[in-house]
Design a protein that fits this description.
With about 375 residues, the protein is an alpha/beta fold. The protein starts with 8 loop residues before the first strand and ends with a helix. Helices cover about 40% and strands about 20% of the residues. The mean pLDDT is about 95. The strands form 2 sheets. The chain has a 10-stranded mixed beta sheet with strand order 2-1-3-12-11-4-5-10-8-9, sandwiched between helices. The protein contains 11 helices and 12 strands. It binds 1,4-dihydronicotinamide adenine dinucleotide and magnesium ion. Magnesium ion binds next to helix 8.
Length: about 375
């Protein structure tokens, strides 16, 4: 019950801060969520923290316990900072934690907004209105983990990495992109990223399914770009992009390019969504654990706080999600107060605080 006698909504959130700056930025996201729940008085978050990651690995030989997915299953959502640290090979830390959760919970949509808030942060010479969203396939494709090493330590030594593209996997991610394009916030345009000139099985198949699904959406304009050309056009004509659908690898690479268009990885938020809702979805920034700046209180917390706003939106708390996103937009204009990656002299904590101060004013105005 809150002070007015209403039953408060409770959300059970699992927090995996992970490694490096993940720990610092996750703390700011949690403080921000607590802050909005305290003001709104309509909901509260029941956070449970898990110390899984590379430090855990050094002690236990694995990134998280055997029954981790079983443990996480009961939560409404998961917040993740970042994983990976020198001392544990990156392919181990990524696959043994992040990919296990994404694939194990069938979080097949990796949603990554690429939106330029303050034009000052654009690396482009001329002003462009940059507002696109990537819908990246998150469970199969090039990151299926299939392959082998053959003829080890011989002149014929070979590595095989197999991409897996299933009809079900392609159809559902492409359909998700079209549905998103039809939503009022978007502009009814889907660009498919391909490379079917060279990848004569996987991407020819992807193109075929894109073509099939697109016929169900006659109101949506479509474009098809090879990934190399897409990287050029994202810089030359970023306004050409609205909703972009891409395979696991291509989406991964292009969204770092997207992050650069936004002003850096410190602005790149993300969500791993299980649209059916049969397992929790996971919200995490695009960036990694940035070991070289870890522990210095200078990591930009914006991407992580933005990811937590995406979590609120997913949970149906649109009002609070919008308030956080507006505050992030406002804070992007206070350049001197931002973290050093943005040219400011603020800290992870001071930027988090500033965002909460702005939220406070906004929520006060709206009450
Ligand atoms: P990274 O994203 O950690 O860092 C790339 C560059 O961006 C660095 O110069 C870093 O200082 C800067 N940067 C990133 N986030 C920042 C922030 N919030 N504020 C200020 N500067 C920021 O990628 P990198 O260096 O390739 O990988 C480092 C580790 O992170 C590796 O172990 C890698 O496997 C892991 N990683 C984990 C991811 C995840 O958990 N989702 C994603 C990408 C990498
Ligand atoms: Mg990446």
């Amino acid at each position: 019950m809150n002070s007015w006698g209403y039953k408060m909504k409770k959300y059970k959130i699992a927090v995996i801060p992970g490694d490096g700056i993940g720990i610092e930025v996750a703390a700011e996201a949690v403080k921000t969520l607590d802050f909005v729940s305290n003001i709104s008085k309509e909901l509260f978050f029941d956070f449970t923290f898990y110390d899984w990651g590379c430090t855990y690995f050094l002690e236990h030989g694995k990134m998280m316990p055997e029954n981790a997915l079983e443990t996480l299953k009961g939560f409404d959502a998961i917040l993740l900072g970042a994983v990976g640290f020198p001392g544990v090979p990156d392919h181990v830390s990524l696959r043994d934690l992040l990919l296990k959760i994404r694939q194990g919970f069938d979080e097949y949509v990796n949603l990554r907004p690429v939106k330029l808030l303050n034009p000052e942060f654009s690396p482009l010479k001329e002003f462009h209105n940059i507002d696109m969203v990537f819908v990246r396939e998150n469970c199969e494709g090039e990151y299926s983990g299939k392959g082998s090493f053959e003829n080890a330590n011989s002149v014929d030594e070979t590595a095989l990495q197999t991409s897996v593209f299933t009809r079900k996997g392609c159809e559902r991610i492409i359909r998700y992109a079209f549905e998103l394009a039809m939503s009022p916030e978007r502009n009814r345009h889907v660009t498919s990223i391909t490379k079917s000139n060279a990848l004569n099985y996987s991407m020819v198949f992807w193109d075929k399914i894109f073509e099939e699904v697109s016929r169900e959406y006659p109101l949506v304009k479509t474009s098809k770009l090879h990934v190399d050309a897409a990287s050029m056009f994202m810089i030359q004509h970023p306004e050409r992009f609205d909703v972009v659908v891409a395979s696991n690898l291509f989406g991964d690479i292009l969204t770092d390019l997207g992050a650069a268009l936004q002003g850096g990885l410190g602005f790149a938020a993300g969500a791993n969504i299980n649209p059916a809702g049969n397992f929790p979805s996971m919200f995490e920034p695009v960036h990694g654990s940035a070991p070289e700046i870890a522990g210095k209180n200078i990591a930009n917390p914006i991407a992580m706080i933005w990811s937590s706003a995406m979590m609120l939106d997913f949970l149906g708390e649109t009002y609070l999600s919008n308030i956080i996103e507006e505050a992030i937009n406002d804070v992007s204009y206070k350049i001197k107060s931002l973290t050093p990656d943005c040219g400011g002299n603020g800290t992870t904590e001071s930027v988090g605080r500033l965002i909460r101060d702005i939220i406070n004013i906004k929520m006060d105005e709206n009450i």
